TrEMBL record:
InterPro entries: ABC-Purine-Binding, PnrA-like, TAT_signal. Residues 1-18 form the signal peptide. Pfam families: Bmp. It comes from Ideonella lacteola. It comes from the Bacteria. The keyword Transferase does not apply. Keywords: Signal. This is BMP family ABC transporter substrate-binding protein. Residues 51-316 form the ABC transporter substrate-binding protein PnrA-like domain. The lineage of its organism: Bacteria, Pseudomonadati, Pseudomonadota, Betaproteobacteria, Burkholderiales. The keyword Lipid biosynthesis does not apply.
Length: 383
């Protein structure tokens, strides 16, 4: 029973009581008074929990990207308890089948849906247009709708910090990156990794091998092996499994973890992990929905918001490198340090950012070039 109905009932009961008392029928008024009191003090009906669904591109046990998102989902459950009910579907392809998954989630009563990879953008837009009463959150995309907003983490900040450590530890001055798909997000991370390494070691060169998938451990292993054979002795990846770190462990080289703390996958090889904490954003988005404050827009969170960190630094990393890492982390947190500040040139010698110029988010979101020091060409650059 709603509060307004209870109030009306109580008011009516009181009026009846007054009438009965006026007629001298006190013995009949007592039960009515008790009913009025009970109606007024009855607890409000408990609202139905908000149903929230997550679509994952990989398995929750990938140790990287999807594992990090699922940790964020668990943080939601811890924060809101029985106010929400969460569910997930793993290994949803970045294809038309994603649309079927989203519609199935809606059919199950979910009112807030998180799509956690770039390739879900178009299917999610299509479904969002058909279901205006459902709120959609799309990770790493750039298209929005009245009931669909985007969110991302500044993974390039983690890549830069990884570069600081990698540049301090390499013996060959050659780093290797296993790239997933050549979109601006991944190219930006490769470049930032290189810039971080060059900040402590100007001799750094970076080699890249693309696998054109987010999660394919055999391909990632093959790519990592190729980089090591090409002279790279410290590796990073922008793929979703721990295969690159495992390969470095097997080959006696070093590597950094990506998206999640991967130290357990290659203890001897592991130099540290660039991690994403999705929890703070997922908590904010859910609170917005619960409180009726949700609105469309774009969010891009980093070290400042507690979304990016570099953790579990290896014991043998020199003290000066650890100090540099902490200095960068503190600067990113308080805004006193900017990664993408000119002069920056591409690997063909063209200036892409003038001296003292600071890249804005539009610039960062459209990066399609390699910085100086990265070998080769960006796939599909037409050169």
């Amino acid at each position: 029973m709603s509060l307004s109905k209870r109030t009306l009932l109580a008011t009516a009961a009181v009026a009846t009581l007054a009438a009965l008392v006026g007629c001298g029928k006190k013995e009949e008024a007592a039960p009515v008074a008790e009913a009025a009191s009970a109606a007024a003090s009855a607890p409000a009906a408990k609202p139905e929990p908000l149903k929230i669904a997550f679509a994952y591109v990989g398995p929750v046990g990938d140790g990287g990207w999807t594992f990090a998102h699922d940790n964020g989902r668990k943080a939601l459950e811890k924060e809101f308890g029985d106010k929400i009910v969460t569910s997930f579907v793993e290994k949803v392809p970045e294809a038309a089948d994603a649309e079927r998954v989203f519609r199935d989630m809606i059919g199950q009563g979910n009112k807030l849906i998180f799509g956690t990879t770039f390739g879900y953008m178009e299917p999610m837009l299509k479904v969002a247009a058909d279901t205006p009463d459902v709120k959609f959150e799309h990770a790493t995309g750039y298209k929005t709708a009245p009931n669909m907003r985007t969110y991302d983490s500044r993974t390039y900040e983690g890549a830069y910090m990884a570069g600081v450590i990698a540049g301090s530890m390499t013996k060959t001055n050659t780093l290797g990156v296993v790239g997933s798909i050549p979109i601006p997000e991944v190219i930006r991370n490769i470049n930032s990794f290189t810039l971080g390494a060059q900040s402590v070691n100007p001799k750094i060169k970076t080699k890249v091998v693309w696998v054109n998938e987010w999660f394919n451990p055999p391909k990632e292993t093959e790519a990592a092996t190729s980089l090591i054979n090409g002279g790279a002795d410290v590796l990073m990846q922008n793929t979703d499994s721990a295969a690159v770190l495992k390969t470095a462990e097997d080959k006696g080289k070093r590597a950094v973890g990506w998206d999640s703390d991967m130290s357990a996958y290659g203890p001897k090889a592991h130099l540290g992990s660039a991690v994403i904490n999705w929890g703070p954003y997922y908590i904010k988005a859910t609170r917005d929905a619960l409180e009726g404050q949700w609105s469309t827009g774009k969010a891009w969170w980093g070290v400042k918001e507690g979304a990016i960190d570099f953790v579990s630094v290896a014991e043998d990393v020199p003290a000066e490198a650890k100090a540099k890492l902490e200095q960068v982390k503190a600067g990113l947190k308080d805004g006193s340090f900017v990664i993408w500040k000119g002069p920056i040139v591409d690997n063909a010698g063209k200036e892409v950012l003038a001296k003292d110029a600071v890249a804005d988010d539009e610039f960062l979101g459209g990066i399609k070039f390699y910085v100086k020091g990265v070998d080769g060409r960006v796939p599909g650059d037409g050169k």
